[in-house]
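Structure tokens please, single chain.
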Amino acid sequence: MRWCNSNIKNRNAGHTYTGKPIYILSLRAEDLNGIWKGTLTQGPGGCFPRYFLELQINFSGDRVTGRAYDYYDKTHYVKMSFTGRYNARTHRLVIIENKVLEAKIPQDCLPCIKTYDLNYTTTGSEEQLSGDWKGVFSEKNTVCPPGKIQLKKETVSDFPADVDQPDTLALLQSSLHLQPREKELVKTVTVGSPQIKIELYDNGEIDGDTVTVLINGKLLLYRQMLTDKPLTIDFNAFPSTEYELVMYANNLGTIPPNTALMMVTAGDRKFEVYLSSSEQKSAAVKFVYKP
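Here you go.
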């Protein structure tokens, strides 16, 4: 969990690169997008000598973003957001955690915000990330005992697949209480690209329909009116992971029910899906990315 005991002695803190340049390349054979799972070790002074680690990596060009879960078990974990960059020439990945999103750990432990220095390798069909980490406590400027990381690319996550959400909507959702409604699955869309673009239009006459939209429980649109101009959502999908979009009707407009045309773009393919929500049921669409 990158948790450390709070009685570690003060040392010089900070994150530094090793001096190796990180190049931006136009061609790459590797695709780091997806779920990476394995172990993280920590030197003497940490709460535990060994943790499980899961990285949910969104990969675009040479840049990565995502979520890190390090955990002793699924009820005791630290969830972090991170950014980073991958050098396709040297197969080196540098990740820097930037925010503690959630911490369910013992009271005498503290989250440690880390920098990862990892190398990408393959053994047969198995993809691996391995290397070192170092970090500092999230609450004070002291160094955590560093350690090693060993990960493999997997298809199943131990935690819900996260979807990026603006901070303003995250704050709004924390105080929002939508009335529970039955969900009606309209369609399951299988795509061949991880980058998915969703555009929502009023289906037919513009009559004042407003909607709230969630993906995997994350609020991404709130009380937005459907018109002939699209309401747009972009998100990244992990292989073989299910994503559920729910369209919640805030009203029924002047011509019930609340209806929308959804245009889905993934790579060079486009899909049309027609949605209808009422005060009793919310329309749902599932997405699965299969490379």
